[in-house]
Amino acid sequence: MQILVTGGAGYIRARVxxxxxxxxxxxxxxxxxxxxxxxxxxxxxxLAGKDDVIFYKIDVTDASALKSIFLSHKVAAVIHxxxxxxxxxxxxxxxxYYYNNTVSTMxxxxxxxxxxxxxxxxxxxxxxxxxxxxxxxxTMELRPAANPYGATKAMSExxxxxxxxxxxxxxxxxxxxxxxxxxHESGLIGEAPKGVPNNLMPCLTRVARGKMEKLRVFxxxxxxxxxxxxxxxxxxxxxxxxxxxxxxxxxxxxxIYNLGTGKGTSVLELIRAFExxxxxxxxxxxxxxxxxxxxxxxxxVNKARRELGWKAxxxxxxMCRDAWNFEKNYRE
Length: 332
Ligand code: UFG
What we know:
The protein is an alpha/beta fold and 332 residues long. 40% of the residues lie in helices and 18% in strands. The chain has 11 helices and 14 strands. The chain has a 7-stranded parallel beta sheet, sandwiched between helices. The site of uridine-5'-diphosphate-4-deoxy-4-fluoro-alpha-D-galactose (UFG) has 20 residues, from helix 7 and strand 8.
């Protein structure tokens, strides 16, 4: 069965491709390589021990490029993971985000309708919940996104839900990722952002490596366990397995799933877990809050457990160990 994965050469996406190959799907990757590397495609094959990967360097907003893929392959389902994801950049370049992230969703959905592909899985984000009461449940009313990136995720969810309602038989799964971290156990695929990292784990590994002097902890005056921000960190391999679980249960209509662990961890707790897992000291300093950050964000994971039979299995120590392992391998 052939699955079209957009953005398949990225960090989370690559891991999803490996899981699909392991389950004997053929993977067609459509990626413009704007924030990923072509070598990842070879690593995907190597890790899965399979060659069933077809790569197209295309932009998903390009309808004619998509058309040629749909005409050349019998696509059974689409997993749409392509998109810009840096919150800070989205505030500086809102049009880039609104255009790319929503037009790609619409173009792909339109191609699916046209070529009779009825299964669509979308990588959304916990950011759509906005500042809500934790734990975040799929049935909650969404709060306005604090930045254009979050708004594009909420808009794409809305667009796809409307498409599913207007096209009986169409299946849409909206996957709300919490905070993916870690890497493949092999250290071959992990988070290697181009440029300066924004997220906590890649900053942490850089400090551990001596490339940054100190980790800046953004605020210790939140109403949380120790005053620092609380997030639901999920191992990227668990997240990838969640995609396969979803793919195997696709049914017509709109289905929303949180992909998280259900556990909140503060920044200081994550630093301590990293130090314990890797026996390495991470110097840090407390600085002011980062604009747009919320105090707490973690998932209610009951729906995914109940309906998909999926739950995250890997703990914080594994996430920290694998992230560090990748950082060492990658830099070397
Ligand atoms: N943090 C620091 N120092 C850093 C980086 C982050 O203290 O150098 C803190 C943040 O203030 C926050 C926590 O670490 O409390 C996590 O921050 P990240 O930047 O790693 O992640 P966010 O929760 O801000 O955002 C991530 C993704 C978004 C997604 C969101 C969903 O980057 O794309 O999770 O929960 F929308």
